[in-house]
Amino acid sequence: MSTHDLHEGTAVSTILIRGARILGGAPSDILLRDGVVAETGDLAGARADQTVDADGLVALPGLVDLHTHLREPGREDAETVETGTQAAARGGYTAVHAMANTSPVADTAGVVEQVWRLGQEHGHCDVQPVGAVTSGLQGRQLAELGAMADSAARVRVFSDDGKCVSDAVLMRRALEYVKAFDGVVAQHAQEPRLTEGAQLNEGEVSARLGLTGWPAVAEEAIIARDCLLAAHVGSRLHVCHVSTAGSVEIIRWAKSKGWDVTAEVTPHHLLLTDSCAERSPLGPYNPIYKVNPPLRTAEDVRALREALADGTIDCVATDHAPHPVEDKETEWAAAAMGMIGLETALSVVQEAMVETGLLDWAGVADRMSARPARIGRLTGHGRPIEPGAPGNVTLYDPSGRQPVDPAAMVSKSRNTPYEGLTLPGRVVATFLRGRPTVLEGKLV
Ligand SMILES: [Zn+2]
Fold it and tell me: Is residue 319 among the annotated active site residues?
């Protein structure tokens, strides 16, 4: 058997995974056959075309990202569907939602179908396009939401991410519109007037560094408004990359009312603080830490971790935002906002949530696979590893720690904020519908 055969999908039809700890439990064999999980348990007598030794490895359902920037079409110098999904597979993902802020913007059936087709042809995981809420992300008129929902891409998540749908009337109309096809509006919550020229979390660090502040209230005010709007029209709201303790309180309140509000947090907001801009392994004023929403304070990080643990925040989403070197290695004020995150997400979550005792592996599977799949209405993902489920499985070795090496990453961009840090764990293998996309840590 060659790796070529695997990629072409001709050779291997059964794979036996030996001794994996499903959700961190007791060792179990997993037989993948014809794209699905055929059997689990003690399968000593089972025959398979290929056997994978998973002694000591944790088996998780394939991870699902609600928030990935694949940059194609338009910025293929930063990332493509092929390289971005390679990074996803290496990170243990079997499905990603591709954000709409491409060039052209994914605001018509034609563009979302183009991205969907690129995923079918070049994807190392499933690619589910996100549709823009407003035409051209301009915030003036609604995009073709219904046509995108009815297209071959079957769009269910709509977002102007990168920009906020700040007009309350447009936001209300979008929330009303998506009800017809069980869609959800994913809001990048940033009140634009309160954040003009903003560079860094508004606080002590921004004051000392002399950088224009991005105040927490600019996020919290939009989240509060949108929770009220979603409740008013009886629709589904998803809050992107929650970054402040105050936002957590608002979402907790909205959920206590029974409103259909969900939320995500990024790995970097679970681990890093605005102090990175001042002192870090990479030196002060390093724009590698410039991101939107900005890194916040240690108190915010604590609140975000607790909210992810108690379910107030539903899931982890990477906000993988590749940028070429020339857009990041410049002075802070001129640098692009964003960080890559697909290849490090699981290690960061282990560091922030598992090593701290806040989540066990079942909790990680819930927050990184089951819930994001449910929010995005991806029926083929996020299912428990049990007979009959699609054969989407990630094998993860939680032991050991390694320095983060940007040069070893497969994303086309290298703007990782974790260079200089040592993180636990590594993804050993990823299976998409019963076929490996990653084996022994390497792309198949
Ligand atoms: Zn965003």
Answer: yes
